[in-house]
Amino acid sequence: MAQVSRTCTLSAEPAAVWALLADFGDLAGWAAGVDHCCLLNHVEAKPPLGLTRRVQMGRDTVVETITDYRAPHVLQYEIAGLPPRLSVSNRWDVLPRGESPTDPGTTVTLTTSVRTTAGPLGRILERIAAKLVARRSAPLLDSLATATERVSS
User: Fold this and answer.
1) What predicted TM-score, i.e. pTM, was given to this entire model?
2) Which of 25, 36, 41, 141 could form a disulfide with 8 if both were Cys (CB 3.0 to 4.6 A apart)?
3) Which Gene3D superfamilies match (predicted)?
4) Which helix (H) or strand (E) element contains residue 22?
5) Cα dihedral 44, 48, 52, 58 sign
């Protein structure tokens, strides 16, 4: 498995950051480059494991399903609709920036993980695919920063 992580520090409180991430069907409301997003099912359970959304980005469409949800710190989802033999997931970790009230803010890490069943060249393919998929991480983190500033203001 190959992983690529990106981290940013936001001035917003963790609750504001978590509120955006936890509203799983509203990705298009804050993420640049996402043209449309909608939920494909309804999950009554808490945590909402198995909740699925369809995400449209230009001509590309993926389906993302929540696999780990530990409010208000961890949101992980599998991404389907990428090339065959690739298993891809994104994990958001949301943590308070400081230990004291004088050091407010949030540290957010977005980790993309890729596994493949592509035989001997699999590890090389995993690293390449992880870097390609993770290219979307920086714009997502930038969009999250912009959206939390709007919410906090």
Assistant:
1) 0.89
2) 141
3) 3.30.530.20
4) helix 14-22
5) positive
Distance CA 12, CA 9 (A): 9
pLDDT of 2-19, one tens digit each?
899 999 999 999 999 999
CA distances from 33 to 29, 94, 116, 139 (A): 10, 22, 26, 8
The overall average pLDDT reported for the chain is 90
**How many Å apart are CA 68 and CA 92, to the nearest integer?**
10
Cα gap 58→50, rounded to integer Å: 25
Contacts 24+ apart (CB under 8 A), 125-131: 125/86, 126/1, 126/2, 127/2, 129/2, 129/82, 129/83, 129/86, 129/88, 130/2, 130/3, 130/4, 131/4
Angle in degrees, CA 64, 68, 92, rounded to 5: 75
Buried/exposed 30-56: b ≥16 CB within 10 Å, e otherwise: bbeebeebeeeeeeeeeebeebbbbbe
What integer is the mean pLDDT of 134-150? 89
Beta-bridge partners for 111: 5, 91
